[in-house]
Design a protein that fits this description.
Blueprint lengths: L18 H22 L18 E3 L6 H10 L3 E3 L3 E12 L5 E12 L3 E10 L2 E11 L2 E6 L2 E4 L2 H18 L3 H4 L4 E6 L2 E7 L9 E8 L6 E9 L6 E5 L2 E2 L7 E10 L13
Antiparallel strand pairs: 1-2, 3-4, 3-15, 4-5, 5-6, 6-7, 7-8, 9-10, 10-11, 11-12, 12-13, 13-14
């Protein structure tokens, strides 16, 4: 008897209608997400550095009577003489965590312009693929803070003013520390061998009796500033929050990480609220 051939049955897989469209949409979405992530990894080009002034830098002798850790810091940072800084422009790049954009971290480039101890102006570009996506102009002028953000303009608020004032002095501590000795309206108070209080005026009025305080802790080995902290309003709706090295204590991680690439002092600057851009 001749065996009959066995016929293999194959079942056709029928995809539901619309599956191809869903796969295509998912692939496109993944492409967009991947492309956006790639854009966040590309740093913007730096701003063009400014030329330093031709005049020699004025200096003064390191004053006597500073608290021990403060004197040690200045001797190591500057030596026996301190520069007299009246204006400064700090330029650099970094990253910023944008809360209105779902806390997305994006590259930035910045230029901070100071009339030392009086006024400042910040210009920040938030970038994607190295191209400016958002632009921020921020001012602290005559003791008043003004923030011009892409989604809002905030001004005329005492909490903003307090935050702007502390922000100015924190930047001076970071980049222009000689101002904290040469400015007669600033003083250092002793605490212990590695800690001092930095007392600064509130606002630009030199006759104001308002003051703010930083607790500054110095590294006992290097003599450098290790930690600084102050009580600052995080926003117009908050109460004062502990602010440590630029990080909100309750947040636990910095929202703005930047590195200066060029600092030039005693050049002509414009900190007025009509000034825009770098």
């Amino acid at each position: 008897m001749t065996a009959l051939p066995v016929t293999e049955k194959r079942s056709a897989i029928v995809q539901p209608r619309g599956t191809n469209r869903l796969l295509l949409a998912a692939s496109f979405l993944a492409f967009l997400i991947g492309g956006a992530w790639l854009g966040t990894q590309i740093a913007p080009a730096p701003f063009t550095p400014l030329s330093p002034p031709d005049a020699p830098l004025e200096t003064i002798a390191l004053p006597k009577g500073l608290p021990a850790p403060v004197e040690r810091f200045y001797r190591q940072f500057y030596g026996e003489r301190l520069p007299v800084i009246r204006t400064a422009v700090i330029t650099g790049r970094g990253t910023m965590r944008i809360q209105p954009l779902f806390n997305l971290t994006l590259p930035v480039r910045f230029r901070f312009i100071h009339e030392a101890g009086l006024n400042y102006r910040h210009y920040i570009e938030v970038t994607l693929f190295g191209i400016a996506l958002l632009k921020v102009n921020e001012y602290f002028v005559d003791g008043k803070e003004r923030q011009e953000l892409p989604w809002a303009v905030m001004t005329d608020n005492p909490k903003l003013d307090q935050g702007g004032n502390l922000g100015m002095w924190a930047e001076i501590l970071e980049w222009l520390p000689s101002v904290l000795v040469t400015d007669p309206h600033v003083r250092w108070e002793p605490v212990d061998d590695d800690t001092a209080l930095l007392v600064v005026p509130f606002g630009a009025d030199p006759f104001s009796t308002k003051e703010e305080r930083f607790v500054v802790r110095f590294d006992p080995l290097s003599g450098k500033v290790k930690y600084w902290e102050a009580m600052r309003y995080a926003n117009v709706e908050s109460e004062k929050t502990l602010w440590v090295n630029g990080t909100w204590f309750e947040d636990g991680k910095p929202w703005f990480i930047i590195s200066e690439e060029h600092v030039v002092t005693n050049v002509a600057v414009d900190t007025s609220v009509t000034a825009k851009g770098p």
